[in-house]
């Protein structure tokens, strides 16, 4: 929570919150949202200043009941947000690559996924730049607060694919 104010500074911006899944209504709402999501959040720092954040949520893979114990904590879902004042300089790419390394090498998950609104071009380009594969494009399946029903895309990367690129 020590980074709450710094994260608020870029998360509250229209160009950032436009594609995010959670838009705080005010500072008190932001405090509550961050408190609930803190366990899955890593910050991106540049010269001691918070300039972005990454969501890393380890979860069970889908499995049939008889083998469900083998699917526990085998997948991680990623999300990313970067302050626009440092965009386009490679910091998000570097941070997401490091989180992929963490997921596969340290957490030992077998699959990492990320989803985005299809029109969120910076996130789509980032997923592709770090080597994630587009697995689906769903039509009008995601409800955007301003745009209504829009398309979404899903990306994934497997541990053996990550290892082959290293």
Automatic annotation (TrEMBL):
Q: Where is the signal peptide?
A: none
Does this UniProt record's set of keywords contain Transferase?
Answer: yes
Q: Which domain of life is it from?
A: Bacteria
Keyword Transferase annotated: yes
Among InterPro entries, the record links this protein to: Acyl_CoA_acyltransferase, GNAT_dom, N-acetyltransferase
Which keywords fit this entry according to its UniProt record? Transferase
Where would I find the N-acetyltransferase domain in this sequence? Answer: 1-154
Pfam families assigned to the protein according to its UniProt record, in alphabetical order: Acetyltransf_3
Give one GO term, molecular function aspect.
acyltransferase activity, transferring groups other than amino-acyl groups
The molecule here is called GNAT family N-acetyltransferase
Species assigned in the record: Sanguibacter inulinus
């Amino acid at each position: 929570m020590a980074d709450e104010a710094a994260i608020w500074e870029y998360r509250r911006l229209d160009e950032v919150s436009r594609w995010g899944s959670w838009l705080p209504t005010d500072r008190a709402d932001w405090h509550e949202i961050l408190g609930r999501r803190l366990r899955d959040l890593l910050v991106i720092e540049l010269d001691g200043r918070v300039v972005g954040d990454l969501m890393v949520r380890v979860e069970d893979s889908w499995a049939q009941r008889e083998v469900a114990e083998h699917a526990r904590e085998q997948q991680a879902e990623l999300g990313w947000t970067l302050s626009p004042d440092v965009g386009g300089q490679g910091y998000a790419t570097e941070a997401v690559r490091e989180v992929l390394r963490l997921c596969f090498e340290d957490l030992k998950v077998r699959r990492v996924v990320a989803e985005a609104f299809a029109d969120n071009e910076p996130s789509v380009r980032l997923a592709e730049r770090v080597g994630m594969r587009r697995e689906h494009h769903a039509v009008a399946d995601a409800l955007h607060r301003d745009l209504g029903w829009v398309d979404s895309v899903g990306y994934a990367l497997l541990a053996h694919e990550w290892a082959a690129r290293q």
